[in-house]
Each structure stands twice: as structure tokens, then as C-alpha cells.
Amino acid sequence: MRSLLKYLQNYKKEAVIGPLFKMLEASFELLVPVVMAHIIDIGIQNQDRGYVWKMCLLMVFLGVLGLCCSLTAQYFAAKAALGFAAELRSDLYRHINRFSYHELDRAGMAALVTRMTSDVNQVQNGVNLVLRLFLRSPFIVVGAVFMAFTISKKMTLIFLGAILLLSVVIFLIVRTTLPIYRRVQQILDVVVRRVRENYVGARVVRAFSRQQDEARQFEKTTGDLKKTQLLAGRISAMMNPLTYALVNGAIVLILMMGSREVYKGSVTQGEMTALVNYMMQILLALVALANLIVTVTRALASAVRVEDVFAMEVTMTDEGNERQKAKKGSPKVAFRHVTFSYDQAQAPSLSDISFEAYPGETIGIIGGTGSGKTTLVSLIPRFYDCQSGQVEVDGNNTRSYPFAQLRKKIGMVPQKAVLFAGTIRQNLAWGKEDASEEAMLQALKTAQALEFVEKKPEGLDTAVAPGGRNFSGGQRQRLTIARALAAAPEILILDDSASALDFATDAALRRAIRENTKGMTVFIVSQRASAVQTADKILVLDDGRLAGQGSHKELFQNCEVYREICLSQLSKEEVTAYE
Amino acid sequence: MSSRETLKRVLKWIAPYRFLVAGMIVLAAVTVLTTLYAPILIGRGIDALVGAGEVSFQRLWNIVLELAVVAAVTALSQWIMNLLINHITYQVVQDVRDRAFRHLQILPFSYIDSRQPGDMISRISTDVDQFADGLLMGFTQLFTGVMTIIATLAFMVSINVKITLVVVVITPVSFLVANFIAKRTFTMFRLQSETRGEMTSLVEEMVGNQKIVKAFSYEDRAFERFEDVNERLRDCGVKATFFSSITNPATRFVNSLVYTGVGIYGALCAIQGRITIGQLTSFLNYANQYTKPFNEISGVITELQNALASARRLFELMDEPAEPEDDGDALQLDNPTGSVAFEHAAFSYRPDVPLIKDLNLTVKPGQRIAIVGPTGCGKTTLINLLMRFYDLQKGELKVSGHPVRKITRDSLRAGYGMVLQDTWLKAGTIMENIAYGKPQASREEVVEAAKKVYAHSFIRRMKDGYDTYVTEDGGSLSQGQKQLLCIARVMLMDPAVLILDEATSSIDTMTEIRVQKAFEELMRGRTSFVVAHRLSTVRNSDVILVMKDGDIVEIGNHQELLYKGGFYAKMYNSQFAR
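Predict the joint structure of the above. Result:
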């Protein structure tokens, strides 16, 4: 939490004024019982109506002052808390934007979304509440004891004893229930998981006729949940009754002890009412504090999670890199003895990979799941740095480029076809803000997407739902290909991005890419032999190693792995169709 | 559904606990009354202490004793009341959740396929909590609030009518103030929650797809968009937070006016000797307590409204028509032969978009049927019909010679082995996952099945072997490994008919070849339906169904269809186009 406090720096004034005015309000509140005591002891005893009116006007005045102070406090607290959250969020986003794929893998993007949204909100609530209320309760407690002390030193002891007992009770209850509530949350997560599981997997559950078993398991979980909730409930149900009993016990003591003081004449009747009043104010303040503790604990937990994100260092930068000029005659992309392993992975995902790809060439990359195909292509835009060897683009080490220059050269079509909320046009402008309409239409045409986009009444301005949900999987894939093409990249990477297409569309797509991307270096990652067959060069990956490179014909003759892939997927005629 | 109707049905859910509810109400009443009686006793106690030398100790002792008993009774009844509320709430929560979950299991696929799981999850988790909490807590608060107001009035009237009038006249002001503020802040709140929603979706999109953002060097543009929303959120957030937090101080101010009013009038009465000082203290105490429920009531009412809204969403779910139950005389199909026949079958998901119009197909036991066609042509529809996830609208589907409508769903499905492209695993051990269709299977059988599909070696290498726990999305398992587990799951079942949605993504090269062989082995002698993506699978099938736009346009084997020179031939040849 401490490191996050710096985001309050621009709001120092607000962060001080807020609690200060809150305490002022509290002190006015603390004066009310004394004023009332005076009304009783002086106004009523002396039958002085003027005095009663005067004191009551004073009370109204205190009320107005209290209202003003409180409003001031709320305003500044809100300003500080919201400002704090805005700056925190902004800085957090700036930090996340600098993350490389290493950090993104480690933190998980879904978790980062939660950090940016609900965690920051929790922290914001915490700051707001702390500024507004956290100081108020202790201040009221201390103030009430102080006021009691000015009335009777002896009776202050009862106050101290009562506060001690109340604090212990509240502390114990909060402390024992917090972990139980955390457990409740965990079981609730299981409930959610089971519902999701059974919803998503409804076909399998019913295919195997396991509905009854699933329902029984679910009931067991909800039974656990109920038991745990009841346990927590049993303990927290004691909070109000116990504190109530304690305060009334204290009042009984005040009356008994007070009776002797009043008899002696050292305490007046009005002062007795003030003491009883203070006792009740203490109760209210402590209970408010207990409720606050729960919110603040939650905010603290969120703050720690946010801090963890800040604590993650950015492992790759492009700082100090100058724009690079392409070296004449060099291959477009070259791998030189590249070895790469992911964080904490035991075995390297790529070992000693070397190849060259020249402008205008089509490179096919084939291999089974987990053989390193995606890893290989993600080294080209320098999403990761390799541990040894080097990756070159236009003859320069990718590490020497500014990220933006390097990545603008490359059109990436990732495996997961995600579109962004907005219009088709906005999505196509992702790679190049000022892409022309012709370029977009041409990109759609090449990606075999023009037909269905033109069918939509709004054409390029057709709305896209978040994630592109309003398009089918195949349509999404074709749109993501168009998105990459619209920026007219020098290098196009298709990472298994035709998996949802039937083989006819897939073939048409590949033909169009071949015809319409003259001069573009194209990487096609696929598990289908038919998709890479026509490539100028095929890289065959097996368990992170390059099992072979060359044309279909060469590989089919010389590369065992490649031949097996082909034979399992293609017929004899297909295998030889290109010979 | 009107609120009254919703409420009526809610009451039905609570009905089994009516005695507990009655007990709760009685205890709430006791708590309110004793809580309100205490200030009177305190007032009397103070009256016993007039001044120096004027203290009646005997009277004070009696009063103090009574106060202690009253406080103890209050605490006790409040405690038991809290326990009862908890008990009822959590019990009702469990009842409703279980019932909703059981309903989920019989919902038709037309419902499941057309909605996101998030909707169901929020109903079964959040809505149930909100409904039970809101309703019971809201109800108790409302009840005790109203009780407190009435009882306080009664107690006050019993002491002094005129001072009571002062309280009654001023209090509604705080109610009005709170209402006024709530109305004014409503629009600000809406703006804030809209902006916050905007922020959440932007962050979900951008940060959730950060890798794509980076691939397109979109970071700066994303940050600009983010800052725009962030600034707006800050501005409207400050306003909404500030104005909503006005309510408390404002009503507190009105309360202090009430307090002062009672103070003046009470003091003036006391001067005339019409009330005692102790009674004045009781009054001041009441003035505080009386206004509190008024301030809370508006909050309680919104909570109750929310609870009713949640209950309505739950009823909506429960009212979703379930799949029709199996006929009473439905057949238990124990020994399926593997024959399948469609007779003039017609089906569509939406009445206005006809899909399958008149399908006739006879499949003999042991035949292999490949289903091919372009993306989105409805290949999975056939799976849906075979498994009876959906029912035909016209015509008949016969399995082993019996119409499927006359067979119990469980026994029909037990005859099938299904492997879908979306590999679904349950959070649990590998063992549990493979034995999903046959929970009573022995460990040996499971291992045997895993060996047959070449999953044994990778399972053995896992941390706890067959007892390794996998999470819902399969965790560290690769797509291929998950696929193997799903195949093993069917292998264990030994079904008469296989339904396979061939994976478009393959398992690593070597394993895939073996799995293909294992599949061949499994398919031998069994009827199988394969949604095929691989030409080799298609070519080796007895019958190929070529689908286009939801319709079956061609039926025949590879040679016949090529010879025919229709859609299939065109599709097949496009493969070789240069």
C-alpha cells in the first residue's frame, strides 16, 4: 500500500483537508451532550428560559457548522480518492503497456484486466473511506473519553474499561470471521466453476448421462457453502448483542458509581446525562469502525495485488534504439542459431534454428502441437528475445530496432481471431491509421472476406461487437487476415489462422495471398500439409528442432517427419500433385 | 411478472421455514420493545439522582437491576434472531441454487446454445445471494424499522404528547431531504456507472488482448482512448461520490434539528415541571432512535426492489421450459445394433430459416458416414439430432429400428460415443475425467483405455500420474493431450455408434498417426459419423454427406461423387488448384 501512496501526492491538500474537517465535525458533535447538560443544570435548575433558548441556538449553530465541515470533508475526500484512482489507473496502464510478452505470460492478461478494473476500484473505495471515516471513529472515542474526563476523573475508568472490552470483542469477532469469509468466497468460486462447467459442457454431461451426479456434487458444494456461511454467521451474529450488552453494562456502572458522586455533589444530574450520551456515541463509533475494517482489509488486499503488478520489471526495452535502414541484398528475415526457452521452462522451445527468408518468398512452417511453430514466428516481431543466436530483419538484429518500426513492417494474424468493438473499418485501420478505402477493400478481397462484408447493408461500417462475437469463427479469421493485410506489411505472418475455414475457402485464400502480395514475405504456420505444400520453403519443426527445410518435394524425399505428416493427411495423388 | 406475483412465488420458497420466520418476527418485536424500554429506565435512573444529598439509592438499585435484565434480554433475543435470519437465508440460498442447477440440467439446448454462460452464472451466484440477502435482511430491517417508529411513538406519547408532536412534525423533513438528494444524484450515478462500464469494456478489450495490441503497435492509440475515458470517469466519479455522500450529513443535520427542537421544548416543559429531567433524557434518546429508521428506509426499499428484480430473473430461469421428459413407456435400449435411419426428417433452429428439409438416410450397422461441407453449413446439426440434443420437427429418426422419441434419452446416449472438437474436461483428476462416462470403471480399465489411445505415456509423466488434478480449462495440458483424454473417455465406453467431430488442429505428429490408427480400430465394426476435415477420412468412408447451407446436397461415396462432378467434386478439386 505504501508505494501506492505516491499517487496521492497531487492531492496532498485534499487528503489533509478531508480528514481535518471530518474531525472538526466530530468535535462539534462531541460538544452537543455538554451543551445539553448545561441546559439541564443551569437552564432548568434556574428556570432560565433565555438561557435555554440561547443554548439551543448554539446547538443549531453547531449543527450548521458540522454540516458545512462534513460537506467540505466529503468533497475533498471524493476529489482525492477519485484523482488518486485515475492517476493510479493511468500509471498502471502505462506500465502494462511496456510489458513484453514475457511479463504478459507471467501475469496473465485476464488477471491484469482485474487489476486495472475491480482492484483499482476497491483501492479507491478504501482511500475514500479512510479519508472520510477512518480517523473519525477513533477521534470520537478519544474525544468522548476526554469529555468524560472533564466531568469526572473517577468515572473515566468505566469508559476506559468499556472501550477496552468493546475493542477486544470487536477485534476478536472480526479476526475470527475474516478467514471464514475468505473460505466462503473460495467455495463460492467452486459454485461458479461448477455452473460454468456444466453449462459449457452440457453436451458431454448429457451424452454420458451424468446429470444426476453433477447435481449431487453441486448440492454437496452448496451444502459446504451453507455450513461455512452458518459458521461465520454464528460468530458475527454475536457482534451487536455483545456490544449492546457491554455498553448497557457500562451505563449501569455509570449510574451506580454516579449515584455516589451526585450524592456528594461532585457531579450534577445534567452531567450524568452527558456521560450516558458519550457512552452511546462510543458504541456507534466502534461499530462503524468494525464495518470499516472489512472494507479496508479488502482494499489492502487489492492494493497488494496492484503493487505486485508494478513490481514486475519490464525485461525488454527499445530505449535508445535508432531507426534502422534495410541492408541491401540481405534476407528479409533470418534466424541465426536461435535458441529460445520460455520463463521457467526446463527444456528450450526452440533449439539452434537457422534459416533465411528472402523478399517475396512464402515460408511454410509445419509441425505438431507444441513443436514451437508459434514461438518461432513470435520472435520475428521481437515479442520475445532469444537466449542465444540472433533474429535479423532486413539484415539488422531485431534488438536494434525501435519496437514500432519493426512491428509496422510485420502483419501478424494470431491464432486466436479477436476483433475489437467498433466497425469493420476501425478494425481494418488497426495496423495503419490512414489506410485508404481501396486498400481495405483489396485486403478484404484477398482475405476472402469481401463477399460477406459486402452483403451487410452497412458494408465497411458494419458494427463489430466486442471480440467480434457477431461474426462466425471463419468470418472472424478472415477479417483478422484482412486487418493485417490492410496495413500493407512487408512481412505477413499467418499463425494457423485458417483453422476454422473449410478446405475450399482455405485453398482460395492461399491462392489469393500468393497472387496479391507480390514482394511480401509470407509465413504460413499450419498443421495441414496441404496448406504449406506450395510454399517456396517449408520449415519442419519437431519438438523445437528444425527437422528439415526445403521444398515439398525435397522434404518428402529426405525428411522422415515431413513424410509421415503428409502420408497421414494426404492421399498419394495429393502428395504427388505438385511434383 | 408483476411485483405482487413475484412476491407470492418468493413466499412459496420461504414457506417451508414459516415457523422460523414467525419466531424471527416475534424476536424482532421483543428486541425492538426492550431496546426502546432501556432509555426509559435510564431516564428514571437519572431522575433518582437529583443532586447533592438528594439521591434515592434504593430506587436506583431497583432500576439498575431492571436495566441489566432488560439489556440481557435484548442481547439474547437479538442474538437468537440473528441466528434464525442466518439459518433461513442460507438455507433458502441453498434450496434455490440447487433447484436452479437441476433446472439447468434439463434445459433444452436451444436455450443453452443461444446464451452465454456468464448469464447463467450471474443468476445462480449473484442473483441468488442478492435475492436472499436483500429479501431477508431488507425485510427484517423494514420490519424492525417500522416497529421502532411505532413503538417509539407509543412510548413518547405515554410520556408527553406535545413533545411527541415536535418530533413527528420535524422528522419527515429528513426523509424528504434524503429523497431529494437521491433523485438529484440518480442521473450522476447513472453517468458514473455507464462510464465505469465503458472503462471496464475498454480495459477488457485492450489489456485482455494486449498481445495483439503490441503486435500492431497500438499501445499509444489505446492509451489515448483509455485516458479519455479515465478523465471522464474521474470527473463524473467525483460528482457522484460527493453528492451521494451528502445524504448522510444532511439527514444528520435534520436529526440534530429534531434533537434541538426536543431539547428546547422539553427544557421549557421541565421548567414548568411538566416533565422530569429523566424523562427529557429519554426523549432525547428517542429523538435519536426515531429518526434512524426513516433514514434507512429508502435504502432498504431499494434493496428490496433489487432483491425482487433478482428473484424475477431467477423465476425467469426456472420458467424456461425444460426438455420434454421421456415418455412413460419409453424403451430402455440395452443392445443397440448400430443402425440409424432418417425418414423424411425436417429440422431448423429458427422457424424462419429452414435448414434440413427432407432428409432420408439409412445407415447399416458398421458403416462409416463422413459429413463434409464448407464452414457454417450445419455439419454439427446432424450430431445434435443424433444425440437428441434437438428434436426433429418433422419425420422420424430411428435408432436400432426404434423411433428415438420412444427411447429413453439416457439409454439412447449410452449407445453413442461422442468426441467433440471443443475438448471439455472437468476440474478433477485425470482418472475421473477418463472414467467420466463410466464412473465405476476400475483403475485397470482406465489405464487400458488410455494406453489404447496413446495417452498413457504422457499421463504417466505427469506429477501425480492418473491422480493429477487438472483445472477446468485443462491447465497445462496441450490441446492435443486434452483431445487424447476425450478419446480415452469414449474408448472406455465401448459404444455401438461413434460420433466424431474431427479436430481441425492436430495432436503432435507422431501421436496423431497412432490416434488415427486407434480410431480406425475403434471404428471397426461400429457405425460412425464423422464431421471430417481430413480428406483421408472422407475418402475411406462408406457414405459421404455433402452439406451446403444446412442442406444435404449430395450423398454417395468418394468415387460416385467425383464422377457426378457436383459440389463435392468442385470442392475436392479446388484443393489442387494452383
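The radius of gyration of chain B is 36 Å.
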